[in-house]
Amino acid sequence: MLDKLEQGHGNLGEIIHFSKNVLRNTNSNYVQTFKEFTQYINAEVAEIKRLKAAGKTIIPEIEYIDIVENNISSEQKAWIHQRGCVIIRNTFAQSQAEAWGDEIKSYIENIGYLDQPDKGLDKYFSSLQDQKPQIYSVYWSKPQVEARQSENLATARKFLNRLWEFEHGENNVFDPDRECTYADRTRRRQPGDNSLGLKPHIDGGSVERWLDASGYQHVYRHVINGDWKRYNPWDARYRTDTTEIPSPAVCQMFRTFQGWTALSEQGPGDGTLQLIPIVKTAAWMLLRALQSDVPEDSLCNAVPARALLCDPDWHELALQGLISLPKMNPGDTVWWHPDLVHAVEDEHKGQHFSNVIYIAAAPYCEKNAAYLAYQAKCFVEGKSAPDFAAENYEVDTDLRANMSDLTDLGKKQMGMLSW
Ligand SMILES: [Fe+2]
């Protein structure tokens, strides 16, 4: 079904209708399965509300030094598994992160980014935002490259990758100890900004979750079969077999965690990230679209080549679990499962810029290695990374990072040196 859509054949509504029937025929009890799953989501939302009212920590937090010293307990790991996200405090020294923030500010100014008209090529978020975002389409500033190839992030991401079940028969789904660079952008959000707000959404494919028979349908097989309690969001099998409809900013890599590194202090109300820390929400949304109150040609407003919205009309229950990150300090990092619904607060009511570099965890596997080859070419030429709109703000500057700025680890992560 997905290939038909990609090739421009077939009517989307008909394809959706057909696919929904295929999924329903797999489990004739899909209504009851959804009811049970909804009870689970309801209980999770109630727990989040209870913790919030009691002023308790909801998003797990660990210290970077405890990863280094192998001091993360099984209880802490279980907590991360339950919530699908984690804050790693002091991943970098505060002074380092702040210096990177200053350097990126200068870089954006010196390459004349602000003098160039909005190229208007990035349509991905068009359904999510009110106006022009305060996310800069720069990929190759020296601080970004330095942070991505840092030993600290290598250590953190090895730990994060190992939270997944990656061993599968004789072949591992991915190698948790070898990281692939996924070049992404940077956010500099000014106080008072009310233009960046991103509605609650999931990245990494929208309609694909229903239509991709060789990838996503295997990922969610237990949910589709009705055995929803067996569904394990941390089972990596088939996650690297998914096919995404190519589109600016639809991530074609497999990421064990999305994430960012804070370059400035930012707390609730400062235009920060929000999460629904219920990792099975995406699987619940899958079943939601099969129910009889949803039009036959609709997947609860999922649109191809766009972020998958957690929609107030259809997913109101889950949206009640949306919470803001606690205060983040420069050098802290936050990580969330690729199925986790996330959003950005509508308005930055704080006093200072809230700045981050988006850096995810993308372990070595065939899918990710294939992407590296395209990305390396973009790096050398200073072009926008392949998954993103070709805005190419950095082509004409020699201020960007080049080969001499890559460490051996950085070259390996970029696929430019063998491991
Ligand atoms: Fe996102």
Structure notes:
- The protein has helices at residues 2-6, 12-26, 30-53, 64-68, 74-83, 94-110, 142-148, 151-161, 208-211, 216-219, 221-225, 281-288, 316-319, 366-381, 408-413, and strands spanning 61-63, 85-89, 135-136, 167-168, 171-172, 175-179, 186-189, 198-202, 258-262, 273-275, 308-309, 323-324, 333-336, 342-344, 354-358, 363-364.
- It is α+β, with helices and mostly antiparallel strands and 419 residues long.
- It has one domain: Sandwich (Jelly Rolls).
- Helix 3 packs across helix 12.
- The longest helix is centred in the first third of the chain and has 24 residues, at 30-53.
- The two termini are 37 Å apart.
- The model has no long low-confidence stretch (mean pLDDT 92).
- The structure holds fe (ii) ion.
- Fe (ii) ion is lined by residues 201, 203, 342.
List keywords for this structure.
419 residues, alpha+beta, Jelly Rolls, 7-stranded mixed beta sheet, 5-stranded antiparallel beta sheet, 15 helices, globular, binds fe (ii) ion
Q: Kindly name the structural category.
A: alpha+beta
User: Unreliable runs, pLDDT <50, ≥5 residues?
Assistant: none
Number of extended strands:
16
What does the average pLDDT come to?
92
Counting DSSP H or I runs of 4 or more residues, the number of helices is 15
Distance between the termini: 37 Å
- Tally the structural domains: 1
CATH homologous superfamily placement:
B-lactam Antibiotic, Isopenicillin N Synthase, Chain
Q: Determine Rg (CA atoms, Å).
A: 21 Å
> Which class in CATH terms?
Mainly Beta
Helix content: 25-40%
- What is the CATH T-level topology? Jelly Rolls
Globally, the shape reads globular
Tell me the fraction of residues in β-strands, as a range. Answer: 5-15%
Label the CATH architecture: Sandwich
